[in-house]
Amino acid sequence: MINTSTQYGKLKKVIVGNELNFNKRLFDITMKNFYKENLGQQLYDSPITEYSINYKILQERIEDLDTLSSTLINLGIDVSRPTKVDKMHRIETPYFKSEGSSASNVRDLTFIYNNTIIETPVFIRNRYFENLQLYSILNKNFFETPERFNPKWIKSPNNFLTESRIDLDNWDSPRNFENLNPIIDTYDMAIDAAQFIKINDKECFVNISTYNHYLGFLWVKSNFPNITFYPLYQLIDNHLDGAFNILSDGVFLVNPAYRNLKEKLPKKFKNWKYLIPKETIRKYPTNVTDIDKLFASERGMDINVLSISPKQVIVSKDATETIKILEKNNFEAIPIQLRHSEIFAGGIHCSTLDIERDS
Fold it and tell me: CATH number, domain at 16?
């Protein structure tokens, strides 16, 4: 059944990602642009078109995702896993060629809100057909949802993803998001589902940092005429769950890099509680990939938690300061091991997709 309207209602059904069991990863312009801030200009400008992941690191990631799945099952939650990819599939459209990805960070491309599945317009080429690995899960839940919920399943139009149709300026460069005329026929709509954070069944945050995001947002918004969206313009380069999460009604968990979040949000959220863990610096292993770059920050991954009820939160066991502040504020922290989130650009929240929660 499809029904989820918050980040924290009691979790009943969830998808846990599967990592691609191949060392090779593509590194085209869409991938580089998506992670530009983390990569740095030199690597962004480099002619490198692929990179590889240390085999031991890859196996540890696969093992930890399996453990995350088992943990959720043991907590009484119905868990599904995407179809595993056993070989690299070639992708070819009239406008680009690539190779398929694994549905590891399942939060990214599918936005499930209330009674609706929205497959958002893809930003990275090798993820173009990634949701085929979720098809049987979504199909089953869509048709098992009672008619009284009036379930909907909507997929975005195909986009070009040519370099000329991607907003390549730095994400925080000045933009005029109000004037649509010059950008409608210039840029693709492209926005990830993880740029949205549900507040309740009628309100939702969305991060918009590029013209691609803006057009993608307008398309998503058109499918939810009764929802109030709060656009957060250029708060973060892409995914909101690297900046903050909602733990319960009136409580934010905030990345310490965004400790001024209160100033960025609408007035009605000023009186919410803002839980900001202390900064931590951990020594990260080198030579985990042959480009030796992280795609996400540990600060973002430490608040990338999964609420399974308004008082229970699954969190990385390495996020010691997050665990402390959760427990201090009467949340039950359930620590699990999810190594190398910074390499795979996906923490616990990214690696899971809620299908059904209590309201």
Answer: 3.75.10.10
